[in-house]
Design goal:
Order of helices and strands of chain A: HHEEHEHEHEEEHEHEHEHEH
Number of helices of chain A: 10
Helix content of chain A: 40-55%
Radius of gyration of chain A: 21 Å
CATH topology of the largest domain in chain A: Rossmann fold
Number of strands of chain A: 11
Structural class of chain A: alpha/beta
Strand order of the largest sheet of chain A: 8-7-9-10-11
CATH class of the largest domain in chain A: Alpha Beta
Strand content of chain A: 15-25%
Oligomer: homooctamer
Largest sheet of chain A: 5 strands, parallel
Shape of chain A: globular
Number of domains of chain A: 2
CATH architecture of the largest domain in chain A: 3-Layer(aba) Sandwich
Largest interface: A-H, 33 and 33 residues
């Protein structure tokens, strides 16, 4: 409920068409669907321009079925993250249009046409093993109507690979860097492009990588300016943030 | 053995009905049942008003059977926490009245009527994935005779969901906030209600959540006053503490 | 602005005494005083029953003077935490009634009579070195109208000291345990009393105490039920929480 | 040296005006000024649109004088970060136009007119103690030609303060959230605005804040989508990133 | 080779019975059996009074068979730690006398009579779940000829259980305390007995116990004097150390 | 109050010489002197054989004067740890017999003759910089009547230094190893002697020593059997524990 | 493309045989094979003297098949690290010459004769459980043409085992020390040999070894000079570094 | 005492010129000078080719004077690390030839001519603030007779600076990379040169650099092969290791 509807409603209060009690209730009442275990934010797309995303991890199959069942009553697009194959199979019964990406563990249902922006987002990965996270960012960006250029396996150990693709990277409006191990690629790219850079540390590595902590700390301490960092393995978050920037 | 019984017993010593040796022994002797691997605190309910709770994790099936077997000789209510399904099946042979909650992994046996308090405790969860911990708190509160209001999925990313349920939360005498990820809900609720707030960080999340550490630190550093924190995923502890407060 | 005033104001909208625009503005307008760097929550006492507390650390002398200057225009009681002696001297020029506690680094200004509760809160410390934190809790409790019983230096290394004061502790409605080093006192007290226990880890110790981390982890993992934990050295938070419980 | 100049130079090679040896050298030679301890990137402004920034911490007074002396030979604008008052006094002898901000410890020298963008960046702080970091972001944004709206002291413990300023925040193109302690403000703001949000954890707090670690982890694990995080206390980095986004 | 044998051998050198080259070789040659992957310290019992112990974890079945096969050629007693059931079955083929303790995962082979000391070691556990670690200490102590008194489940949450067994604990010459969660039992016992206390933190617990870190830090920071700590879950190490003390 | 005195007192109750009330009070009353901020355990020497030790850190000069003033009323020996020079000067006014060791920051007052044990304790340090901690152990051992052999600067980087002093070390009944940096000396000594070894990690080092954490973890994970570890820099604790072992 | 080829090509530009556009493209073009998910650095052997190594972990079977398929088109030697048995079976179909080492999880394909250096590298392990990491180093060194001497199970708990093999160790040009638990062997060896020492911490251990952290910190803080450390369990990295040194 | 001298001495035993007792003593006796608090390894230069280095931190002025006084009795070169200006002034009285480097805090006394190797070591720093650590490595290398090429301020944020100096770096036999913040320079250099690379993380940075931890983890997890890491800020260790490699 934005300021305009508030004004409108209060005018109706003045005219006596709505009682103060009722208005008071409406002001305190907020727009979501309560299905017991979950409150579905059906008006989120209207409010912030993005439909609600379902974080599947930790939810039971039953809960997911009820959530998707409810969302399927509407006609919006739906995005689910961190879904297992078993979750997909359980949900897939509800609609044949749901697509599952086993590498990035995303679920999408596209019922409304997606309007693509003119400008693009570049996703740059350090290694092949970072691809699941990169794909999560890529599919998220696509879902929100962004063109994506994916550039893989250009980690700094062979930095000449990066330089040959720099022109492609520089054409993008926003750059996402996905890297595990020491995550140095974020600093190198950050120093080479003048665009906003979003760094995604991944848990690729072993030993003192401590499940991505090394890459995370590395990216937070980057000597390059203009780099924002998201959680370890959070390809979705990087894609979402890149989309809000790309769509400005 | 409280001060009164001590006085009483010492009076009997004076009267010569009990020898000093015997009295000395009784004072040093303390009220529990020793079954080898475990000392069952049979008089705990009398002493602190709460029956002993069995922490099942790390105990063998044999040990659990002996513990519950002993407790079943009495007629008190019994609560078991962090029990696997296999543990339940093993114990269930001893008594058909034992109930198992697979989501929260609690075992209960209610043989005495539960006297419910007038006032209630509110449990507020940030997301659907926090439900197992919230249910552990809920069933614990119920076991100890508290009325509970469960409010789920009102995390701060869609804060309007929280505001519409605030009146319900404010009716409670104590509020438990259950949240993973960044655990911000505890601070927001703590700033909105004037009641004692108990915050339970959960291990919901990934990457830099470090199995609940992020939510734990967040809750400990809350800028809201009047928030006490329990261990990560410790729904039982939150329920127990809330019960001691609610019953004051 | 609570629900009643909202109803009242909306009635005036109905009667045409307030325009919808004006009402809309008032609803969105919230009760604080903006003095540039700080937003003073002048109506906090009305809203949650406790006046706003000034966290002094990290504020400049100028900012503190402006904040206290503004608050002194009202006639409420004022509490400042983590204030240095220099801060006190700077503020003291504004009012001679401001009292400074150099050990706990609290500032208080009491202009309204404090109504004391019947029941009391016990503060139990493990060692003499924990006194600054304990005093912070004590003066906070006093400021909010709670009677306090302070029991010092009963750490578990000489546990007989604790047992002799147990009757005094058990008379209280809420118990605060303040301990550094390994913080074991919280568990021992938590196992002996049936009241809500608030544990405050302190940074007393050295080496692997890691500035209070050892005591903090110890208290969070307590084997006693019914213990809530606040931040390291957070005597104020413990006092505030104890007060909300004691006043129920 | 971009692709165009390379083409141009190679044309001159073809025409025999430049020897292959010379061209080869130029290609390998890169544009900076070497003053012994430091390589000044004089062409950075041309290359990425931003003049080089001097990170003053850890440099000796002598080194800083040589660096600024060299930069003063040009006519560009200069920004220095994390400078002590002593550093400022040492540099100030070289030019009276250098301005020092003691709270945020920035040095600026503006010799070229700054072209301001139409759109603005909002900086939102949780508390008054976060102001030094917020000012670092503010002055950085101003230096790079961005309009800034500073909104202070709207931490989540009194969330009504935030709601009253939401319209102002929503007018901005990018939002920077500066918060210490538990850093929950980033999640709440991230859930309320549809713009890119940059979160800056600060070291404000004590105990288990571990010098800003709690706020950092909290922001990385935010349940709100579209939030990028920079290093603890890194107001400059947040300002720089916001500028690259705002200028798109 | 102790000083006496060295003198003896050098006398034989003087007498010309051993060439200097041979003597030089012998001095550099040290007493162990090399079986490729492992160097078996066959003379360890002679040198330090304790036979070598086989740390089974991380060794292949083949390696273990070769190690035990070699040791079985001698006639000493053998102790294996952290052995899986599969390892046992693989070794058991070599000798029917090998005994396996599935709870503590120890292997023992006793071929020489064990001479028991007069004095005893007490093992005190906080909970039933600490039993595997306690049994590891118990069987180790037995293997080295110490009498053991095992006292289980006397954690501080019900401290009266501890007091009733204090006389038994005080009869021991050395006391081992085994505790997980917050490990407070070590401090309480350390304050009550005047004997050397060895504390063993266990990984019993969850959440902020961080696999035993909480108990470990707690024990290292104990306010009781005279407590030595071994690694998390290291029942063997505690038993070994207790044995060296008990046998003095 | 031991069992004998309890029996005696109860006999007097039987004879009517003590009222039950009085006896009840005495049983609950425990032997210490309460001087407000501190409870002095005057009978500790009688109970556990060691006089109470004053941990000076974190206590005010006033508190220390009152504590030592009270203790000086008795005639026992006194030990103070972690005392600053300023603390010493403040206490020194009370008695000229108090001795201060500025390197180890100990205070001692010896009024009773010290009975030395026959056997000795060896203290072995890795480097010269570990001497303050080693001296704390040495003076503590001396205070409790143990003969000490101090062997300094035999760190493993030049392991031949250690071998030449091995015979001296082996004469001792207990060995304390004091080492910072990587703390490897504890493992090497532990493998060479058959006596109980107490390892004291020190904060000597820099960078990834993390104030002694590296040495602490190293010692806890020692591959040598029979090593107990105390807190970082805790020379007193090591000395105390060694004394309880040496005096067996 | 080295400086010579650049000069050559530029000469052809001068002669008009190559257009500037084409030359410009070639300079920016860099030598690798792009197979979509991976960029194969086919000229790496020419550039730095070592063929590219395939880090198998985190790659899908499909990706590995495509990578090895591409590499098999050439005739160089191939090394794959951290490969599972399943990966091996999938790759093995492509060429029968691929060898798999299940203990160290290496894959090798040797098609070119390996030229062995005169000098050797010694690998010293603390325990039998460190063998998988040691073998990874050994096979890597062999692959790159180094002679290796493997000395196993000479941990410091029985330091005499180390001394008897010292002459063998001292014959090597470079020494690799592989140790878990407290990793003390690196310091002892570092103090005994005058050659470069490379330390590899392993995750062998439990409890406070924290998956190799203890050994890592220990090695980084070694009191011996001349020790370089690689990641936990990184036998490949140690072998590679040793090879670059041995081949100097 | 090497094998030859042992043989020689044993021959003299055979001839009766040395008694077995005396020989036995000499074998056990090892070559150092004991000055109480410190054991000076006077024959270290003979044994491992490098004179002993004095780690000054944590030593008293008195101890340092005695150590240097003793060393000055010989005629070797001396190196002291981590010395304060005050330490230098105290030592300088003993010999006018002692040189102090205030930036790197090294002390050197060169009395023997230094024989320089033909080959050189390159030191590459990321920023100007890393110079103190780089100078420590540089002066150490010089002290041990290595030619050094120092290349400063080529951090990856402006990677073109690095490429222009690559030929200089590639001429060296060993490369030391000194970098703070995210330490990415080590990976980039490691990928560009085929020589052994030694990485030194520095404590340059703030916030989540955690005093150099970020750079340390980054370097340990480098995706480039052939990189060995030393402790944070350990310029001496890097120089020493580089020297042992360069002198091979």
């Amino acid at each position: 409920m934005d300021k305009n509807s508030l004004l409108q409603m209060l005018s109706q209060v003045r005219k006596g068409k709505i009682t103060p009690e009722e208005a008071s209730q409406r002001i305190l009442e907020l727009p979501y669907q309560d299905i017991g275990h979950t409150k579905l934010d059906m008006m989120r797309e209207m409010r912030v321009g993005y439909p609600e995303v379902i974080y599947c991890e930790g939810k039971t199959l039953n809960q997911l079925q009820e959530i998707f069942g409810k969302l399927l009553e509407g006609d919006g697009n739906i995005l689910g993250t961190r879904a297992t194959e078993e979750m997909y199979r359980s949900i897939a019964r509800l609609s044949k249009e749901i697509v599952y990406y086993p590498v990035s563990r995303l679920l999408t249902l596209k019922r409304q046409p997606i309007m693509y922006s003119e400008t693009s987002v570049a996703i740059v990965t350090a290694g092949t093993s970072d691809l699941p996270v990169a794909e999560e960012a890529e599919k998220t960006l696509d879902f929100y109507g962004n063109k994506v250029k994916m550039i893989t396996d250009v980690g700094v150990a062979g930095i000449h690979r990066l330089f040959s693709v720099l022109p492609v990277i520089r054409e993008a409006r926003v750059v996402i860097v996905v890297a595990g191990m020491e995550g140095a690629l974020a600093s190198v790219v950050g120093g080479l492009v003048e665009k906003p850079v979003i760094a995604v540390p991944t848990s690729v590595g072993y030993g003192a990588s401590f499940q991505g902590l090394a890459a995370l700390l590395s990216m937070l301490n980057t000597c390059a300016s203009g780099v924002g960092v998201v959680n370890i393995d959070n390809g979705f978050g990087a894609g979402y943030l890149a989309s809000t920037i790309n769509k400005l």
